[in-house]
Amino acid sequence: MEGVRPGGGPPASGPGSGSGSGSGSGSFSSLFPPGLHGIYGECRRLYPDQPNPLQVTAILKYWLGGPDPLDYVSMYRNLGNPALNVPEHWHYVSFGLSDLYGDNRVHEFTGTDGPSGFGFELTFRLKRETGESAPPTWPAELMQGLARYVFQSENTFCSGDHVSWHSPLDNSESRIQHMLLTEDPQMQPVQTPFGVVTFLQIVGVCTEELHAAQQWNGQGILELLRTVPVAGGPWLITDMRRGETIFEIDPHLQQERVDKGIETDGSNLSGVSAKCAWDDLSRPPEDDEDSRSICIGTQPRRLSGKDTEQIRETLRRGLEINSKPVLPPINAQRQNGLNLDRAPSRKDSLESESSAAIIPHELIRTRQLESVHLKFNQESGALIPLCLRGRLLHGRHFTYKSITGDTAITFVSTGVEGAFATEEHPYAAHGPWLQILLTEEFVERMLEDLEDLNSPEEFKLPKEYSWPEKKLKVSILPDAVFDNPLH
């Protein structure tokens, strides 16, 4: 439960109490949490005339058992910049993803040189409507939802990431139903006693813009949004009343920028959390051993922590939330400072430094399969052409990680090093993790056969595709199949 109140900090010792100077006298600093004070100092630099902004605060703090990880979300009135065609807007800043207190109540203190907490706070810029005297509070709940995901999954966000939300951000009828993340254009990184804090801005986008970011990359679409004033402009301000996509405003952007970018660069989306499953068709039906696990003795072996970490690292640059409820964690280890802008290469690797790959756990043998059946829900299946055209044809890999179990499916090309699937044995399983190696020739054929996946509204479920000579089958199934644990 949250409350809205004026003030820039904790009720008893907030920046608006006392002298309100924000410069921090000795007694003031001793009362005010140092991490919070550092972030507030950056806010005061931008908004010296707003020492007591309206603030949404968690009534029962997360570290006291409350549901909301962000202690506060401050809301400022930004006059924009007429010279740059930047309109007046509301500017929201979160407090809580970084370490505010330094006493291990929320985040483990790891020193001053690295990131503070998760290393970032969220911001959001919402266009101010004519006559609007106070900022809407729904962005604070949106930020809390993203923070819950980060805290529960321990997956950090990076500039260029996208979040598919599948619902208007403000619960209206708006076309703005998804998000991209980028560096805040005004707020500078802050060095606090507990580490460095950067500021990631949420940018609301339409479904077509999200799909373009998936097919190409988030940074490319953000640059296009900056060039279209009504779609964000240089400061990427979200207008919930925007009724047209950037491709409807300027049709040339799709062909001249996005399509050319996909052809040249491929896709930076290396994986998604999804509804998916796979079966080993080469195993007799009467075999009671689960096709998604390896038995050691009499106990089925689940994914090891190291294996799960490798899968998570293949997902890190393409983090996707498929629905508003928080997804289950992919692994239990937090990763900070991950680089989103790795240069594209025809020789990608599952063992590269950026993928933080590891040697498979020695207790789980890797086994080769003769024939496999892949199963996806409609949303996940619609990403298969992206996987093939934007990733494998550029010598990269793409991973589907199940949100309903341990299953993972990684497609790899012949240019990927470190894979346990090979051209001789293109289907290989390591516990519940399946790798599928596809040659460029077969990828081209699959793209032709799967062309109708680009228009999912035109086909009925279930839909099946089969390549008997390759002993591969792909089924697109209703969501209910994956929601039923007996599927």
TrEMBL record:
Location of region: Disordered: 1-27, 326-352
Annotated GO CC locations: cilium; cytosol; nucleus
Residue ranges of domain Suppressor of fused-like in the record: 66-242
GO biological process: negative regulation of smoothened signaling pathway; negative regulation of transcription by RNA polymerase II; signal transduction
Domain of life the protein comes from: Eukaryota
Subcellular location: Cytoplasm; Nucleus
Alphabetic keyword roster: Acetylation, Cytoplasm, Developmental protein, Isopeptide bond, Nucleus, Phosphoprotein, Ubl conjugation
Protein name: Suppressor of fused homolog
Organism: Sylvietta virens (Green crombec)
